[in-house]
Amino acid sequence: MGSAMKHKQHEGQVVLDVKNISLRFGGVKALTDISFDVREHEIRSIIGPNGAGKSSMLNCINGVYAPQEGSITFRGQTFRHMNSRQVAKMGIARTFQNLALFKGMSVIDNIMTGRNLRIKSSLIAQAFRNPFDIGGAQKEEERHREFVEHIIDFLEIQAFRKTPVGQLPYGLQKRVDLGRALAMEPQVLLLDEPMAGMNVEEKQDMSRFILDVNDEFGSTIVLIEHDMGVVMDISDRVVVLDYGKKIGDGTPDEVRDNEEVISAYLGTSH
Known about the structure:
This protein is an alpha/beta fold. The chain has 10 helices and 10 strands. Strand 4 and strand 5 (77-79) form a beta hairpin. The longest helix has 21 residues, at 134-154.
Protein backbone atom coordinates (compact mmCIF):
# COMPACT_ATOMS: atom_id res chain seq x y z
CA MET A 1 0.00 0.00 0.00
CA GLY A 2 1.94 3.01 -1.20
CA SER A 3 1.14 6.65 -0.96
CA ALA A 4 -1.02 6.23 -4.09
CA MET A 5 -3.86 5.43 -1.69
CA LYS A 6 -3.57 8.78 -0.03
CA HIS A 7 -6.35 11.25 -0.63
CA LYS A 8 -6.19 14.79 -1.83
CA GLN A 9 -6.75 17.37 0.87
CA HIS A 10 -10.44 17.89 1.53
CA GLU A 11 -11.50 21.48 1.93
CA GLY A 12 -15.09 20.59 2.78
CA GLN A 13 -17.08 22.33 5.48
CA VAL A 14 -16.59 21.31 9.10
CA VAL A 15 -19.23 18.72 10.10
CA LEU A 16 -17.91 17.84 13.55
CA ASP A 17 -16.13 20.34 15.80
CA VAL A 18 -14.62 19.11 19.06
CA LYS A 19 -13.74 22.01 21.39
CA ASN A 20 -11.69 21.91 24.59
CA ILE A 21 -12.85 18.47 25.71
CA SER A 22 -11.59 17.38 29.12
CA LEU A 23 -12.59 14.08 30.69
CA ARG A 24 -11.74 12.81 34.17
CA PHE A 25 -12.50 9.56 35.94
CA GLY A 26 -12.20 10.33 39.65
CA GLY A 27 -8.83 12.07 39.88
CA VAL A 28 -7.46 10.58 36.67
CA LYS A 29 -7.38 12.79 33.59
CA ALA A 30 -8.27 10.75 30.50
CA LEU A 31 -8.41 13.75 28.14
CA THR A 32 -7.09 17.29 28.66
CA ASP A 33 -8.35 20.23 26.58
CA ILE A 34 -8.65 18.38 23.25
CA SER A 35 -9.81 20.33 20.17
CA PHE A 36 -9.99 19.26 16.52
CA ASP A 37 -12.48 19.33 13.67
CA VAL A 38 -13.64 16.91 11.00
CA ARG A 39 -14.50 18.07 7.49
CA GLU A 40 -17.15 16.74 5.16
CA HIS A 41 -16.10 13.53 3.38
CA GLU A 42 -12.59 13.25 4.80
CA ILE A 43 -10.86 10.35 6.54
CA ARG A 44 -9.77 11.89 9.84
CA SER A 45 -7.62 9.66 12.02
CA ILE A 46 -6.89 9.79 15.74
CA ILE A 47 -3.67 7.99 16.58
CA GLY A 48 -1.42 7.56 19.59
CA PRO A 49 0.25 4.89 21.68
CA ASN A 50 -1.91 2.57 23.79
CA GLY A 51 -3.57 4.42 26.66
CA ALA A 52 -3.35 7.77 24.84
CA GLY A 53 -7.10 8.44 25.20
CA LYS A 54 -8.25 7.55 21.67
CA SER A 55 -11.24 5.40 22.64
CA SER A 56 -12.21 7.87 25.38
CA MET A 57 -12.36 10.59 22.71
CA LEU A 58 -14.60 8.43 20.53
CA ASN A 59 -16.79 7.67 23.53
CA CYS A 60 -17.32 11.41 24.09
CA ILE A 61 -18.36 11.92 20.45
CA ASN A 62 -20.55 8.83 20.63
CA GLY A 63 -22.33 9.93 23.80
CA VAL A 64 -21.03 7.07 25.97
CA TYR A 65 -19.00 9.42 28.20
CA ALA A 66 -20.00 12.91 29.36
CA PRO A 67 -16.90 15.15 29.41
CA GLN A 68 -16.57 17.59 32.33
CA GLU A 69 -15.49 20.42 30.03
CA GLY A 70 -15.83 21.38 26.40
CA SER A 71 -18.43 20.94 23.69
CA ILE A 72 -19.06 19.05 20.47
CA THR A 73 -20.75 20.72 17.51
CA PHE A 74 -22.34 18.49 14.86
CA ARG A 75 -23.67 20.22 11.73
CA GLY A 76 -24.12 23.52 13.55
CA GLN A 77 -25.77 22.09 16.71
CA THR A 78 -23.64 22.36 19.84
CA PHE A 79 -23.84 19.82 22.68
CA ARG A 80 -22.17 19.78 26.06
CA HIS A 81 -22.99 16.09 26.15
CA MET A 82 -24.29 13.88 23.37
CA ASN A 83 -26.50 10.92 24.19
CA SER A 84 -26.01 7.65 22.31
CA ARG A 85 -29.50 7.37 20.86
CA GLN A 86 -29.52 11.01 19.72
CA VAL A 87 -26.08 10.48 18.12
CA ALA A 88 -27.35 7.50 16.12
CA LYS A 89 -30.46 9.40 15.01
CA MET A 90 -28.33 12.35 13.85
CA GLY A 91 -26.40 10.00 11.59
CA ILE A 92 -23.26 9.05 13.52
CA ALA A 93 -22.55 5.29 13.53
CA ARG A 94 -19.78 3.39 15.23
CA THR A 95 -17.90 0.11 15.12
CA PHE A 96 -16.36 -1.29 18.28
CA GLN A 97 -12.85 -2.43 19.10
CA ASN A 98 -14.23 -5.51 20.84
CA LEU A 99 -16.77 -6.94 18.43
CA ALA A 100 -20.32 -6.38 19.64
CA LEU A 101 -21.88 -8.72 17.08
CA PHE A 102 -24.62 -11.31 17.74
CA LYS A 103 -22.48 -14.43 17.33
CA GLY A 104 -25.36 -16.88 16.91
CA MET A 105 -27.09 -14.80 14.23
CA SER A 106 -26.35 -14.90 10.52
CA VAL A 107 -24.32 -12.26 8.71
CA ILE A 108 -27.42 -10.83 7.02
CA ASP A 109 -29.38 -10.64 10.29
CA ASN A 110 -26.48 -8.90 12.06
CA ILE A 111 -26.31 -6.26 9.33
CA MET A 112 -30.12 -5.88 9.44
CA THR A 113 -29.84 -4.89 13.12
CA GLY A 114 -28.01 -1.77 11.94
CA ARG A 115 -31.03 -1.00 9.79
CA ASN A 116 -33.51 -1.16 12.68
CA LEU A 117 -33.30 2.50 13.59
CA ARG A 118 -34.35 3.42 10.04
CA ILE A 119 -36.94 0.65 9.68
CA LYS A 120 -38.78 1.65 12.86
CA SER A 121 -39.00 5.32 11.98
CA SER A 122 -40.04 4.73 8.37
CA LEU A 123 -42.68 2.12 9.29
CA ILE A 124 -44.16 4.36 12.00
CA ALA A 125 -44.34 7.25 9.52
CA GLN A 126 -46.04 4.95 7.06
CA ALA A 127 -48.58 3.79 9.62
CA PHE A 128 -49.56 7.40 10.27
CA ARG A 129 -49.92 8.15 6.58
CA ASN A 130 -52.00 5.08 5.84
CA PRO A 131 -52.77 2.62 8.65
CA PHE A 132 -54.05 0.02 6.14
CA ASP A 133 -51.06 0.21 3.82
CA ILE A 134 -49.78 -3.30 4.50
CA GLY A 135 -48.35 -3.60 0.98
CA GLY A 136 -46.47 -0.34 1.47
CA ALA A 137 -44.90 -1.64 4.67
CA GLN A 138 -43.80 -4.77 2.83
CA LYS A 139 -42.27 -2.64 0.07
CA GLU A 140 -40.44 -0.63 2.71
CA GLU A 141 -39.10 -3.84 4.28
CA GLU A 142 -37.95 -5.01 0.82
CA ARG A 143 -36.15 -1.73 0.25
CA HIS A 144 -34.27 -2.14 3.53
CA ARG A 145 -33.33 -5.72 2.60
CA GLU A 146 -32.08 -4.53 -0.79
CA PHE A 147 -29.86 -1.97 0.90
CA VAL A 148 -28.43 -4.66 3.20
CA GLU A 149 -27.77 -6.93 0.19
CA HIS A 150 -25.93 -4.04 -1.46
CA ILE A 151 -23.67 -3.75 1.62
CA ILE A 152 -23.03 -7.51 1.59
CA ASP A 153 -21.97 -7.34 -2.07
CA PHE A 154 -19.88 -4.24 -1.43
CA LEU A 155 -18.00 -5.94 1.43
CA GLU A 156 -17.58 -9.15 -0.61
CA ILE A 157 -19.21 -11.40 1.98
CA GLN A 158 -21.98 -12.87 -0.24
CA ALA A 159 -20.71 -16.41 0.39
CA PHE A 160 -21.35 -16.01 4.14
CA ARG A 161 -24.79 -14.36 4.08
CA LYS A 162 -26.46 -17.16 6.08
CA THR A 163 -23.44 -18.16 8.19
CA PRO A 164 -23.62 -17.50 11.95
CA VAL A 165 -21.13 -14.71 12.56
CA GLY A 166 -19.39 -16.62 15.36
CA GLN A 167 -18.20 -19.21 12.83
CA LEU A 168 -16.38 -16.65 10.66
CA PRO A 169 -12.68 -15.79 10.91
CA TYR A 170 -11.89 -12.62 12.83
CA GLY A 171 -11.12 -10.47 9.77
CA LEU A 172 -14.54 -11.27 8.27
CA GLN A 173 -16.31 -10.60 11.59
CA LYS A 174 -14.74 -7.12 11.54
CA ARG A 175 -16.14 -6.67 8.03
CA VAL A 176 -19.64 -7.62 9.23
CA ASP A 177 -19.29 -5.07 12.05
CA LEU A 178 -18.45 -2.43 9.43
CA GLY A 179 -21.48 -3.58 7.40
CA ARG A 180 -23.79 -3.17 10.37
CA ALA A 181 -22.58 0.41 10.90
CA LEU A 182 -23.02 1.14 7.16
CA ALA A 183 -26.60 -0.17 7.32
CA MET A 184 -27.45 2.93 9.37
CA GLU A 185 -26.47 5.07 6.34
CA PRO A 186 -24.34 7.26 8.59
CA GLN A 187 -23.14 10.71 7.65
CA VAL A 188 -20.19 10.17 9.99
CA LEU A 189 -18.70 6.76 10.65
CA LEU A 190 -16.60 6.25 13.79
CA LEU A 191 -14.23 3.29 13.39
CA ASP A 192 -12.62 2.10 16.63
CA GLU A 193 -9.43 0.17 15.75
CA PRO A 194 -11.00 -1.66 12.80
CA MET A 195 -7.68 -3.42 12.11
CA ALA A 196 -6.68 -4.47 15.63
CA GLY A 197 -5.57 -8.11 15.68
CA MET A 198 -5.43 -8.43 11.88
CA ASN A 199 -2.63 -9.80 9.75
CA VAL A 200 -1.05 -7.70 6.97
CA GLU A 201 -3.35 -9.03 4.25
CA GLU A 202 -6.51 -8.42 6.33
CA LYS A 203 -5.30 -4.89 7.10
CA GLN A 204 -4.82 -4.20 3.39
CA ASP A 205 -8.35 -5.47 2.68
CA MET A 206 -9.84 -3.35 5.46
CA SER A 207 -7.90 -0.27 4.28
CA ARG A 208 -9.35 -0.73 0.81
CA PHE A 209 -12.89 -1.07 2.19
CA ILE A 210 -12.49 2.08 4.31
CA LEU A 211 -11.35 4.07 1.26
CA ASP A 212 -14.21 2.61 -0.82
CA VAL A 213 -16.78 3.43 1.89
CA ASN A 214 -15.48 6.99 1.89
CA ASP A 215 -15.81 7.19 -1.91
CA GLU A 216 -18.93 5.16 -2.67
CA PHE A 217 -21.10 5.79 0.40
CA GLY A 218 -19.79 9.33 0.82
CA SER A 219 -19.34 8.76 4.56
CA THR A 220 -17.08 11.05 6.55
CA ILE A 221 -14.82 8.76 8.57
CA VAL A 222 -13.20 9.22 11.98
CA LEU A 223 -10.70 6.40 12.42
CA ILE A 224 -8.88 5.30 15.56
CA GLU A 225 -5.88 3.14 14.89
CA HIS A 226 -2.46 2.58 16.38
CA ASP A 227 -0.87 1.15 13.22
CA MET A 228 0.81 4.33 12.04
CA GLY A 229 1.67 2.93 8.60
CA VAL A 230 -1.96 2.20 7.75
CA VAL A 231 -3.09 5.60 9.02
CA MET A 232 -0.49 7.47 7.00
CA ASP A 233 -1.62 5.67 3.85
CA ILE A 234 -5.33 6.34 4.00
CA SER A 235 -5.90 9.51 6.07
CA ASP A 236 -6.51 13.05 4.92
CA ARG A 237 -5.64 14.51 8.32
CA VAL A 238 -4.37 13.04 11.57
CA VAL A 239 -4.74 14.03 15.24
CA VAL A 240 -2.12 12.59 17.60
CA LEU A 241 -2.87 12.02 21.29
CA ASP A 242 -0.43 11.03 24.01
CA TYR A 243 -1.39 10.65 27.67
CA GLY A 244 -4.72 12.34 26.93
CA LYS A 245 -3.16 15.46 25.40
CA LYS A 246 -3.03 16.54 21.76
CA ILE A 247 0.57 16.56 20.55
CA GLY A 248 0.05 16.79 16.80
CA ASP A 249 -2.56 17.65 14.18
CA GLY A 250 -2.24 17.96 10.42
CA THR A 251 -1.67 16.08 7.19
CA PRO A 252 0.12 12.71 7.39
CA ASP A 253 3.34 14.39 6.21
CA GLU A 254 3.12 17.17 8.80
CA VAL A 255 2.48 14.68 11.58
CA ARG A 256 5.24 12.34 10.43
CA ASP A 257 7.81 15.15 10.77
CA ASN A 258 6.57 16.36 14.17
CA GLU A 259 9.32 15.86 16.81
CA GLU A 260 6.85 15.34 19.67
CA VAL A 261 5.00 12.67 17.70
CA ILE A 262 8.25 10.91 16.79
CA SER A 263 9.35 10.73 20.44
CA ALA A 264 5.90 9.52 21.60
CA TYR A 265 6.14 6.67 19.14
CA LEU A 266 9.78 5.70 19.80
CA GLY A 267 9.91 2.24 21.25
CA THR A 268 6.36 1.39 20.14
CA SER A 269 5.45 -0.51 16.99
CA HIS A 270 5.03 1.68 13.92
